[in-house]
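User: ok so my PI wants both of these folded by tonight, can you help

Assistant: No problem, let's get them done. Here's the first:
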Amino acid sequence: LWLVMDFCPLGTMNNFLLRPENISHTVLFMKQVADAVDFLHGHEIVHGDLKPDNVLVSGTVQDPVAKVADFGLSKVTNRGALGDIPTNSM
């Protein structure tokens, strides 16, 4: 078994956004992460541990791309069971 991932030289979203010059990318990342979650839920997958440290950043500082990672707690479900799995938190 081989695992292949993109190299994400900009680190995690958490570390990337801690740098003041990168804070302007926050809205872009939220859109990209929301699109990723929409894709996952559309394929009946719940991530289960979505947080800034589980979002990697590739691309360049000027044009970063957020990539959801760490699917260790993810669940594949069906539409009927999705109601039993929390998909948000406060």
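One down. Here's the second:
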Amino acid sequence: MFVPDLADRIVEQSFGLFRRHLQQARQAARVEHHQRLHRIRTAHEHATECRARAEARAERDRLVAERVVEVLDHVCRRCKEMATRDGAAP
């Protein structure tokens, strides 16, 4: 009776250690997975913010360029009007 009980305890302890190590490995993997997802999420949020800023800058630059073209068109028209009024050839 002693030998089977001893064998059962040894097997039980071995499997207990195995289960404990497996749980620790799973926990470490969960932590690593969580950290990896956090880094990905942070990088995605940063990229989204950068994109929004870049789009805003592009829109601002487009509006400025349109305004410059409007001003140049106005100046050109005024110069032609003045040249025509003064009798000079356009």
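DSSP finds one helix and no strands in the chain. The longest helix spans residues 2-85. Good luck tonight!
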